[in-house]
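fwd from M.: "can u put these together and see what the complex looks like"

so here's what she sent:
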Amino acid sequence: MKKLLPHPILSLMLLGLWLLLVNSISPGQILLGALLAWLIPLYTARFWTAQIHIRRPLLLLKLTGTVLVDILIANIAVARLIIGPRARIQPAFIRMPLRVKGNVSVSLLANTITLTPGTLSASLSPDRSELIIHALQGNDPEAIITDIRERYEQPLLDALEQT
Amino acid sequence: MTTELTTLLVELFVALLILIGAGFTLLGSFGLVRLSDLYERLHTPTKATTLGVGSLLIASAVFFTWREPGVSLHEVLVAVFLFITAPVSAHLIAKAALHQRTPSHSGLPPETLLEKHDGHGTRTKPDTDPKQKPSQTD
C-alpha cells in the first residue's frame, strides 16, 4: 500500500488539480486524472522527503475559513490605510520566535502572515526558529505576536504537529 | 419575464464584482505611489491585489457558469496559485532587501539579528567538517 500509493494527500490534490484544469468531471477525465495522480507521486517519490500528517483535518478546514475571512478584512484595512492620513502608518520590524517546526507548517504560517492584516513575513532565520515580520502599524509588537499565535500558529500546531 | 429578470440580476452581480475588483486593483497600484519604502510597498501587491483579482475571478466563474453548460471552476486554480505565489515572492523580495540592508523608513532591525538571518552564524565551513578531515580523528 505504502509503495503503491506513497503520498495519498498529494495524489488527491493532483486529481483535484487535473479536474479543475480540464474544467470537467466526465468519467474519462476522472480516470485520466486518477492515473496521473497515481503515477506522478510514484515517479517523484524521492523528491518528497517529508510526509505530511494531518492530525485534525477539521481544525485545518476551520483555520482555512478564518484565514479567508481575515484576507477580506486585511484588504479593506490596507485599502483604508493607503487612502487615509500618512500618520496612521507606523511601520516597524517585529521579531517573532516560532513554535511550529515542520517544513509545511512554517511555510503555511509565513504565507498566512503575509496574506493577513498589516503584516508581512520578511525573513526566516536559517535555523527556522524565528521570523522577522514587517508591520504597517507596528506600535504594539506584543499584541501582533499574540494575535498571530492565537489565530494561526496554535491551530497549525494542533492540526499538523505532534505536541 | 423571469428569464429576463435573472439575466438582469446576474449581470448586475457580475458588474458589481468587476467594479469591486477593479477598484481594489487600482488601490493596490495607488499604494505603490503612496507608501514610502520597499518594505511598505510590498504590502499592497500581496493584499489589495488578492481581493481585486479574487473578485474578478468570482465574476468570471459566475458569468461562465451561467452562460455556458456545466460549471466553470478553473478560476479556483488561478486563486490558489496566486495565494501561494504572492506571499512567497514578497517574502523573497523582503529577504533579499534585508540581506542588502536596503534602508527603511522605520529603521532596520538590529545588525546582530540581521547577521543571524544572513546565515553566517550557522554555516559550517568545509574544512571544519570532521568527515572531510580524517587526520582529526587519528
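replying to her w this: The interface with chain B takes residues 17, 20-21, 23-24, 71-72, 74-76, 78-79, 82-83, 86, 89-93, 95, 110-111, 113-115, 118, 120-127, 132, 134, 136, 138 of chain A (CB under 8 Å).
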